[in-house]
From TrEMBL:
UniProt protein name: Signal peptidase I
Species annotation: Actinospica acidiphila
Source organism, top-level taxon: Bacteria
Length: 127
């Protein structure tokens, strides 16, 4: 197997790194290392919420609902993702937070991959 190929399972691999499958935080020798994009497989129990708003956002983000009901809070707007495949995109400068109304699985893609958004609470995975 080539060192530039990785085969895995999103559910299993996500559990190892706070939901994150790909991004700048992976070892540079890992094919999942990228400074261009980050991908997260987020599994959220009912009532799970982001500990604090992301402010000063420097990335663009796409969040796609796989299952459940998931609310994304944006300045002056609340977006409910309720049907499989519902998604929201926001750009640089848009602060955000989120809340899982039901057990939810969401796929987050954001770009570029930059450090500095990790919430200090070790039980919290950023979105």
């Amino acid at each position: 197997m080539s060192d530039s190929v990785y085969v895995g399972n999103a559910g299993k691999d996500a559990a190892l790194d706070r939901g994150w499958l790909l991004g700048h935080f992976k070892d540079a020798s890992d094919p999942r290392h990228s400074e261009d994009v980050e991908i997260k497989w987020g599994v959220h129990p009912p009532g799970d919420e982001r500990a604090q708003w992301v402010t000063g956002e420097e990335r663009t983000a796409l969040l796609v609902l796989i299952s459940g009901r998931f609310r994304v809070e944006l300045p002056g707007r609340s977006v409910l993702l309720a049907e499989q495949g519902d998604y929201v995109v926001w750009g640089k400068g848009v602060d955000h937070s989120w809340y899982a109304e039901e057990e939810s699985v969401v796929l987050t893609v954001r770009w570029p991959s930059v450090p500095g958004y990790k919430v200090s609470d070790d039980n919290e995975a950023p979105a």
